[in-house]
Amino acid sequence: MKSNSLRLLVALAGFALAATAASAAPVLIGNKNVAAEKIDGATVKAVFLGKKVAWDGAGRVVLAVLKTGPVADEFLQGSVAMNASAFNNHWRRLAMTGGGTAPKAFDSAEDLRKFVAETPGAIGFVDAAAADTSVATLTPAS
């Protein structure tokens, strides 16, 4: 009986972990004035590292990031090749040397999405479930 209970507990934990991982798929979102519906990986990296500071014809880039969590971790590892600590240190260094202003950081995807929707030139990332029609979903170009 105990072994069946243990198996059930392990199975439920596995399902919960899989559900958490599935819900953590990040998507890139932008203000609707950001013309690029497709954006290549090199541009995404340049934008999030502060190397590209203006959109072609759409004004300055305004970065928005999630402070912590699996969505932030997955996006930063996959798109910028940094963990959250290295990313934050990169921006601290830029700010201290006058090379840029750190991205606006949000606790929730909803607040980030609202900021991106209301801020011309803004770009950020959220869980796919948090994206809606108030923002443009930017598709990575191959």
TrEMBL record:
Keywords: Signal
Domain of life of the native organism: Bacteria
Protein name: PBP domain-containing protein
Signal peptide span: 1-24
